[in-house]
Amino acid sequence: MGRKDAERQLLGHGNQRGTFLIRESETTKGAYSLSIRDWDDNKGDHVKHYKIRKLDNGGYYITTRSQFDTVQQLVEHYTERAAGLCCRLIGSCKRGMPKLADLSVKTKDMWEIPRESLQLIKKLGNGQFGEVWMGTNDGLCYYLTKPCLNSVPLTMGLGRDAWEVSRETLSMQRKLGQGCFGDVWMGMWNGTTKVAVKTLKPGTMSPEAFLEEAQIMKRLRHDKLVQLYAVVSEEPIYIITEFMSQGSLLDFLKDGEGQSLKLPQLFPIKWTAPEAALYGRFTIKSDVWSFGILLTELITKGRVPYPGMNNREVLEQVERGYRMPCAPGSPASLHELMLQCWRREADERHTFEYLQSFLEDYFTATEPQYQPGENL
């Protein structure tokens, strides 16, 4: 069902404010769209749409602060409270049977199902033009097309069983380094994948503390972060990660190609908080400043910050109290958030927890406002 069909049905007779339906997202595979009938003085009856996203572990959410194992649990939650939606859910959309005049290829999205989803059980009768059978739906939401491909495990939401591998699948090839608590080796996993293997020296620290690093890495996934591949949790303990062919960043910058990099490539002045750029004080609050700069890039679709200024001018102007003005088309509330990220005193800047909460609520409040012709 498309966005327009959802709006047509929700605005039909017998539905009131808070009536909803859930449909597959037309643009995001694996996601759903929650469409809700709403009303206000300016627009009268209208429909708002929210995207239901899927977690890697199978859960669902509209905002990450409220996550659910099933879509049914999500619906029950928003039936009890609006929690940032336009209104509380009160009931599912009432849909009438289509008129005979409407039955055409245009109704295929509503009525068409895969032939493979039906099982014919017993023939009930036959006539001149065909037969009638008793059948049943197989209960699956889709017919099965192909088996899941084996791949490197995702680094979010998997438990111990999904990460545990046999020690025999690893072969150590070359020691890369060592420390107080263990060694790091280059190895081969299953004879095909080059990996880095971090080992723990017995008696140097508790296995639980050593494996805590792996527990943290399981929750992180980004192509700019070293990825966790697997663990061997029985002693001697192994943590298996992505192999970095260039070695440590420090060694890379000291030798060869790293020495040819210019300072502006290594130190992004326009993104750096003044206390970090001038005095080398890098803290989580200086990261908050940089996040505020990132927001300007998002709002301006990638425009370089402080247009028309070089690095020296940026440092001088920021020290005098200059802050970038609100960009054309930028919501005032987002610009105010940026200004809070750029407070002179680091302790007065927002926390990342606050920023996450603000942006989740902002996202929930504004996502329903789509331009004509756009779909979820």
From TrEMBL:
Q: Where is the SH2 domain?
A: 1-93
- Species of the source: Etheostoma spectabile (orangethroat darter)
Give the GO molecular function terms: ATP binding; non-membrane spanning protein tyrosine kinase activity
Top-level taxonomic group = Eukaryota
The protein in question is named Tyrosine-protein kinase
Which reaction(s) does its UniProt entry say it catalyses? L-tyrosyl-[protein] + ATP = O-phospho-L-tyrosyl-[protein] + ADP + H(+)
* PROSITE patterns hit by this protein: PROTEIN_KINASE_ATP, PROTEIN_KINASE_DOM, SH2
EC identifiers of the protein = 2.7.10.2
Q: Which InterPro entries match?
A: Kinase-like_dom_sf, Non-receptor_tyrosine_kinases, Prot_kinase_dom, Protein_kinase_ATP_BS, Ser-Thr/Tyr_kinase_cat_dom, SH2, SH2_dom_sf
- Enzyme category, top tier: transferase
Protein keywords: ATP-binding, Kinase, Lipoprotein, Myristate, Nucleotide-binding, SH2 domain, Transferase, Tyrosine-protein kinase
Gene3D superfamilies xref list: Phosphorylase Kinase, domain 1, SH2 domain, Transferase(Phosphotransferase) domain 1
